[in-house]
Specification:
The chain has 288 residues and is α+β, with helices and mostly antiparallel strands. The chain has eight helices and eleven strands. The strands form three sheets. It has a seven-stranded antiparallel β-sheet with strand order 1-8-9-10-7-6-5. Helix 1 crosses helix 3 and helix 2 crosses helix 3.
Length: 288
């Protein structure tokens, strides 16, 4: 019999999905492009362990993290960026290609390149992996079940990288597909990062939760890491999901990251897999 807490399946000890890994460590973020030092043009001809386009990619990401360009805004043209950074347009284009591949930037034909926003389509194709047994996909209907503020537990502190004794907000959110409860999310965020967050903020938000983080708090989720296992949910959760006693479910632990690989949300989810399953289509180009 499976325990009431998540345990590894027999097939996999660990499954970790990383939608996109971006490592751009920096102690201080610039406040504007004017504060980002240009790359020495001569550096293009000098031996380096890091390709020049990676350096440009890293510095563009620093500017994004500093709020130089807001979600939905266009970034400067490739020629302008090439002049700002003192590198060739080809180098800029390669750096932007990497950021577009990571869904951090979005190219729009004839208009330019924009900072990605968390639309419903983006969430459905990029962050929501629950589909029908026939592969059908639909956007879930969300229902807020509870909201509270309390002291973080040891697991929260470890996953969110927050100091011991930090305060967090906890959200229990139910997702329905075709009118039936399928996913129960227990979401934890730091109240230091998400100041003044409350039940009304979640209940009355427009759009997705990641859209709320982006629009209200300037936090842009750029990747997620998920660990999956099979387990029997606690009786309370099984009842909410309309599951039979001792019916196994899919359990997912997710950490969402913003720029600089900084964790911003810890989410534990239970999925009623009677009519649904998890789909990870790693090499498919998502709609954006």
């Amino acid at each position: 019999m499976l325990p009431a807490t998540a345990s590894p399946s027999q097939l996999y000890d660990l499954y970790e999905f990383q939608a996109y890994v971006l490592d751009c460590r920096a102690a201080l973020w610039p406040k504007s492009m004017a504060q980002i030092p240009k790359i020495d043009p001569l550096a293009a001809g000098q031996p380096s362990a890091t390709p020049l386009y990676r350096e440009v990619q890293w510095r563009i990401t620093r500017a994004l993290a500093a709020g130089e360009w807001k979600p939905g805004e266009a970034i400067p043209s490739e020629s302008e960026l090439a002049a700002d950074f003192g590198v060739s347009i080809g180098t800029i284009r390669r750096a932007i290609d990497e950021l577009v591949a990571g869904r951090i930037l979005v190219r729009q034909q004839g208009r330019g390149t924009f900072v990605a926003t968390h639309t419903e389509d983006r969430t459905l194709f990029y962050f929501f992996h629950i589909v029908g047994k026939d592969g059908s996909q639909e956007f879930p209907v969300s229902e807020l079940l509870s909201f509270s503020r309390e002291r973080a537990g040891a697991d929260d502190e470890a996953q969110l990288g927050i100091p011991r004794g930090s305060r967090v907000a906890r959200v229990r959110n139910l997702l329905k597909l075709a009118g039936k409860p399928v996913v129960l999310d227990d979401i934890t965020v730091s109240t230091e990062r998400f100041t003044r967050i409350d039940e009304d903020t979640f209940r009355n938000r427009e759009g997705t939760i990641y859209g709320l983080y982006q629009a209200r708090y300037g936090v842009n989720v750029v990747r997620i890491s998920e660990r999956l296992s099979a387990a029997h949910p606690p009786a309370e959760i099984a009842a909410i999901l309309g599951m039979r006693a001792n019916q196994p479910a899919l359990h997912i632990r997710r950490v969402a990251y913003t720029y600089n690989d900084s964790p911003v949300e810890y989410r534990r989810s239970w999925i009623n897999s009677a009519d649904h399953e998890y789909l990870s289509d790693l090499w498919k180009t998502a709609a954006r």
